[in-house]
Specification:
With about 120 residues, the protein is mainly β. The chain is about 10% helix and about 45% strand.
């Protein structure tokens, strides 16, 4: 049996931009992508803590070290700059493998979107 489990999570990052006039996606600081083991083009689920919205899109690389979290295209209508969101990706895996799998869960500073131990 194959099941879908949490693979990666950026917990409580702040939306820095919302760009309606861009082809849809979410732009994420490349440092945050690396920390959460996310790749460009990967499907992600977004949960907005401020308004309860949940939606899916895909990742594009943002400038490394910028703290950028930008919702693009139609997704820009689902958030406001300053909203706190959770970004999650999932993976399909064998049921037995899933029992011992440990996801990448990252808790950036939600004021600056910087990683623990780095300067904003």
């Amino acid at each position: 049996m194959v099941i879908e489990v949490l693979k990666s999570k950026l917990h409580c990052v702040q939306v820095t931009e919302a760009n309606l006039n861009y082809v849809g996606s979410i732009t994420i600081d490349e440092d945050l992508m690396d920390a959460a083991n996310l790749i460009e083009g990967e499907k992600v689920c977004i949960a907005d803590n401020n308004n309860g919205e949940r939606f899916e899109t895909y990742v594009i690389k943002g400038e490394r070290g910028s703290g950028c979290i930008c919702l693009n295209g139609a997704a820009a209508r689902k958030v406001q700059v300053g909203d706190i969101i959770i970004i999650m990706s999932y993976a399909l895996m064998d049921f037995e493998e899933a029992k011992s799998f440990k996801p990448w869960v990252v808790f950036p500073d939600s004021r600056t979107n910087s990683l623990p131990g780095t300067k904003a």
